Amino acid sequence: MATAKTKTPEQTTDVQDSALNELFIDELKDIYWAEKHLAKSLPKMAKAATSDELRAAIENHLSETENQITRLEDAFASIGEKAVAVKCEAMAGLLKEGEEIIAETEKGSITRDAGIISAAQKIEHYEIASYGTLKTLASVLGYNEAAELLDSTLQEEKACDSLLTKIAEAGINQKSKSEKK
Ligand SMILES: [Fe+2]
Ligand SMILES: [Fe+2]
């Protein structure tokens, strides 16, 4: 069996010059795009929601998301980088899925809310994974200010996810069970 050749990368003692630094910045650009596009989609999701509770939760998360965009700009600035958005294919796909769920469910139905919650939680889980990694990478790279900013957003994403679970379990799942297809 052939042994796989592994290239030994050149070494550096300068964090700014490291491959990990480049990966961190690339991921920051990715989530920056994701948040900006999510902010454009959330009003549509709120408008499509049937229950006032879900609509209020989405509207609240819209203002949090706008603040998270500013926080990302602060994180870029804290490491001397320009805030640049690079298309996040994962978020683009998740948002498209959310639009499809709205198109496929009946207006005014609770089942639509169950669908919106499903789409929104997939988005939140993607964000939780992204911010968890970003926060850890920021700490490893010694970017303490960025790590703190990213952690604040991580906590908001987790809280949003928990709230969505609470809303679903408080009645939406049961009510939608009795709606005819
Ligand atoms: Fe977010
Ligand atoms: Fe979020």
UniProtKB/TrEMBL annotation:
The record's CDD domains line, in alphabetical order, gives: YciF
Give the domain of life: Bacteria
Q: Which Pfam families match?
A: DUF892
Sorted alphabetically, which keywords does the UniProt record give? Answer: Coiled coil
Coiled-coil region list? 55-82
| InterPro entries, alphabetized | DUF892_YciF-like, Ferritin-like, Ferritin-like_SF, YciF
Q: What is this protein called?
A: Ferritin-like metal-binding protein YciE
